[in-house]
Specification:
By secondary structure, the protein is mainly beta. 0% of the residues lie in helices and 44% in strands. It is built from no helices and 19 strands. The strands form three sheets. A seven-stranded parallel sheet has the order 1-4-7-10-13-16-19, with no helix packed on it. Strands 2-5-8-11-14-17 form a six-stranded parallel sheet, with no helix packed on it.
Length: 173
């Protein structure tokens, strides 16, 4: 399935039948007033240099489970370090949650207004916030997680990092 959109309201991304992945050819954006809830078992694939943005007051609630993790990775056949940009958090919404998520093959280049490439990057605007737990970050051409200044808050625990070109977690308070 394809899912290229600005999300301005409450949207739920459900797992597609037959383990079919969502494919992103341009950057999806969660805007103020929007919450994207990602169900367990969802697989998202990203074309080259595409990012995933959580803006303003928007919220990403990606709450996977041990048995059904959520996956964000490169499009099929492109499993290399730094294929897509990664998740950019520009939102201070306290509901921002990534739990039991596998984020692979990101960190191709830095995201808009963020100085460093990473699988997950938190902006120094809007008091950006992310709770990141029980997740696996791998195959990054940049950092695993990067915080772009003191206004970015990462609450992280029980995460695993592998094949990260930079630091696992960089510049986070």
């Amino acid at each position: 399935g394809s899912f290229d959109a600005a999300i301005d309201s409450d949207v739920t991304m459900v797992a597609l039948s037959g383990n079919t992945p969502y494919r992103f050819s341009s950057t999806p954006t969660i805007n103020d007033g929007g919450t994207l809830t990602v169900d367990p078992g969802v697989e998202m694939t990203f074309e080259n240099d595409v990012a995933f943005h959580v803006n303003g007051g928007g919220a990403l609630v990606a709450d996977g489970t041990t048995d059904e993790p959520i996956t964000m990775t490169a499009t099929a056949g492109n499993g290399q370090q730094g294929w897509w940009r990664g998740v950019g958090v520009y939102s201070g919404n306290s509901n921002n949650l990534i739990d039991h998520l596998e984020i692979r093959h990101a960190g191709s280049t830095d995201m808009d207004g963020i100085q460093q490439a990473a699988n997950v990057a938190l902006s120094n605007t809007n008091n950006s916030f992310l709770e990141l737990t029980n997740s696996t970050l791998s195959d990054s051409a940049g950092d695993g997680v990067y915080c772009d200044g003191s206004d970015a808050t990462l609450s992280a625990s029980e995460n695993t990092f592998s094949t990260i070109a930079g630091q696992n977690v960089a510049n986070c308070q």
